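dumping this here so i dont lose it again. seq + smiles for NAP
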Amino acid sequence: MAEKKVIAVVGATGAQGGGLVRTILADPEGGFAARAITRDASSEKAQELAALGAEVVAADVDDEASLEAAFAGAYGAFCVTFFWAHFSPELEMQHAANMANAAKAAGVSHVIWSTLEDTRDYVPLDDDRMPTLGERYKVPHYDAKGEANHFFTDAGVPTTFLQTSFYWDNFIYFGMGPQRGDDGSLSITFPTGDGRIAGIASEDIGAAAYGVFKAGPEMIGRTVSIAGEHLTGAQMAAAFSRVVGEPVTFNAVPPEVYRSFGFPGAEDLGNMFQFTTEFEDQYCGVRDIDETRALNPKLKSFDEWLAVNGSSVPIP
Ligand SMILES: NC(=O)c1ccc[n+]([C@@H]2O[C@H](COP(=O)([O-])OP(=O)(O)OC[C@H]3O[C@@H](n4cnc5c(N)ncnc54)[C@H](OP(=O)(O)O)[C@@H]3O)[C@@H](O)[C@H]2O)c1
C-alpha cells in the first residue's frame, strides 16, 4: 500500500481537531495518518490519541517554529484557534498568521483553516444596531477568524476555508443547557426569536474536515460551510422536552438583554446571535446540510446528537 498522507492536526485534544484525528484513525484504509498536535504530549488526552494510533507531536500556536517542525513532512494541516482560551481577537489573528506561515515554510499541500464570517462585511462598525466591541469588532471571535483568512491567502498556502457552526456541545460545556426559572420550570435562552440557529455536533466538524481532505485539490481555494441542522430555539426546546422527560420551553430574549447577562463573552455572543438571526437566510443558506452530509455521511441531526449526549447535559 502507498505511504499514508500525514494530516497534522492543531487542537487535536480538543473538539474540532479531536473529531478529525478520530475520524482519520477510524478509517485505516483511507490513506491518511493522523499527527496530533498538543502542547503536552504526556497528557491523558494526548496519550489516548496515541493509544488509538496517532503520532503525537508537541507544538504551541504561540510559537511558529514549533508549528513548522510539527507540520514538516505532512501532506495536510488542520488549523484552528482557541478564542475562548484568551478572549483576544488580536492573539487569535497572530496564531492564525503563525499557522499560515508555518504551513508555507513546511510546504504543506492542503490546509484547512477553521474560520467564520467577518461580520463587519454585513454590519459595518458605524452600524448602531449592535455595539462595537474592542473598538474594531462586532463579533470578535468571528471577525478575527474572518480577517485572518488573508494570512493563508497572502502566504500562498493551498487552503480550504471551513466555516463552522454553533456546537450543540455548548449545552454540555458552555452552560447553555436548560435552566430552572423562579417557577421551577425549565427553559433554554437565546436572543434568536423565531430565527433558526445553524448547529452541529462538534465531533462532526472534524469528520467533515476529513471529507475535505479526501476530496483533495478540488477543495483548495473554496469556502466550505457546514451544519448538522438549522433549528429554532423552540424546536431545540421541544427536542429537549422529549429527552429530559419534562417540558422545556424556549425563552427568547432581546439581544441587548443577552449581552447584559454578564458572563465572559456575553456581549460577543449576544452580537453573534443577533448577526446569525438578522442574516439568517445567508448564514443558514451557505451552511447546506446535504453538502455537509456529502463530506461526512455520519452527520448527526440534533435528535441523534441528543440521543447520545442528552444524559451529559446538566439539568438543574
Ligand atoms: N463553541 C462553539 O459553538 C464554536 C462554534 C464554532 C467555532 N468555535 C471556535 O472553535 C475554536 C476552538 O476549537 P475547539 O472547540 O476545537 O477547541 P477546544 O475543544 O477548546 O480544544 C482546544 C485544544 O487546543 C489546544 N490548545 C489550546 N491552546 C493551545 C496553544 N496555545 N497551542 C496549541 N494548542 C493549544 C488544547 O490542547 P492541549 O492542551 O493538548 O495543548 C485543547 O485541547 C474557538 O476559536 C471557537 O471560537 C466554537
